[in-house]
Design goal:
This protein has 13 helices and 5 strands. The chain is mainly α and 315 residues long. The strands form 2 sheets. A 3-stranded antiparallel sheet has the order 1-2-3. A two-stranded antiparallel ribbon has the order 4-5.
Length: 315
């Protein structure tokens, strides 16, 4: 999806600069969700506010001006009649900061950048390995059981799972891997147990009516308008996973992201190096490190005891 460029006439230097920035984002080939987030932050938040404040040039966004913008966002009422959440304000502000950072690199006289509001540190519950196993066991079809197992063992995003093709199954030096078309079109390779790859291959071989025009692994359960089994979409995967959660009476609202989040947390609990995990998960190191906040006091107690025991053995 292309970046939504400015819908109104580019009448000010700031709006023209913003249009150039969104074109720059489009040229980078960012994910559609990122494109939309940047466009909303600029077109939906920054420019309307600047028009209201009669700010026409980037250098007029002084420290006082951006503080007024931040204060306005924190007190703004949404369409639902409630104040914007701090998470929404944080998202908008981060998009505006990205724009101003780009403008500064382009040699524009950027005077200030809005402050990011502090977000509360919230404990997010995760699934245990047994709960993931229960989801797999409660799935109604082998397709859905495989979806749960791949999410639980490899931590993929739903879009990455939907885009998996037959050619993404790799066995270099007898080591199982999945070649992933990741976020921002970045390719990476994720280790996969040989038994998991064998299950995927059995599922592929068992689907004899797989359309020749498409080599996606996961297909719909019913034929589409063309009379063929169509590739499963991100939405289809979300619905399948949510349905399994309801079917098994899971204690948490289930979705692909929760299973990925649980996988990252479990890898950290098992002592996996965060840098290696960030590479395999296709996420920034900051995102991986943020998951440490979800490790509970029992994890911290065990880790500290292990560290002390290791130290004592050296004396």
């Amino acid at each position: 999806m292309a970046v939504q460029l400015l819908s109104r006439a580019d009448t000010t230097a700031l709006s023209r600069l913003a249009s150039d920035y969104l074109t720059h984002c489009q040229a980078r080939g960012l994910s559609p969700k990122t494109d939309i987030a940047y466009s909303v932050a600029i077109n939906g938040v920054l420019l309307p506010w600047c028009e209201q404040e009669q700010i026409e040039r980037v250098e007029e966004l002084t420290s006082r001006a951006v503080d007024r913008l931040s204060a306005d966002l924190l007190t703004r009422i949404s369409k639902r009649g409630k104040p914007l959440s701090r998470e929404s304000v944080h998202t908008y502000t981060r998009g505006i900061r990205q724009f101003l950072a780009w403008a500064e690199r382009e040699g524009e006289p950027v005077a200030a950048k809005p402050q990011l509001p502090k977000l509360p540190k919230r404990y997010k519950d995760v699934l245990t390995a047994d709960e993931v196993n229960a989801l797999e066991a409660g799935a109604p079809t082998e397709r859905d059981r495989l979806i749960i197992r791949i999410l639980g063992d490899c931590g993929l995003r739903e879009g990455e799972l939907a885009r998996l093709t037959v050619g993404n199954i790799l066995r270099p030096d007898n080591r199982g891997q999945l070649r992933i078309d990741g976020k921002g079109r970045r390719e990476r390779r994720v280790p996969a147990m040989p038994r998991l790859l064998r299950r995927i291959e059995r599922y592929i071989d068992g689907h004899h009516e797989r359309p020749a025009s498409n080599d996606r692994i996961f297909l719909s359960l019913r034929r589409g308008r063309t009379g063929e089994y169509e590739p499963l979409t991100e939405s289809g995967i979300q619905q399948a996973v949510q349905g399994i959660g309801l079917r098994t009476n899971c204690r948490l609202p289930i979705g692909p992201h929760l299973i990925r989040h649980s996988w990252i947390t479990e890898m950290l609990r098992q002592g996996m190096d965060p840098i290696q995990l960030s590479i395999i998960a296709g996420a920034s190191l900051k995102v991986i490190m943020d998951h440490y906040q979800h490790l509970n006091q029992e994890d911290a107690y065990k880790a500290m005891n292990a560290a002390i025991a290791s130290r004592d053995t050296r004396h």
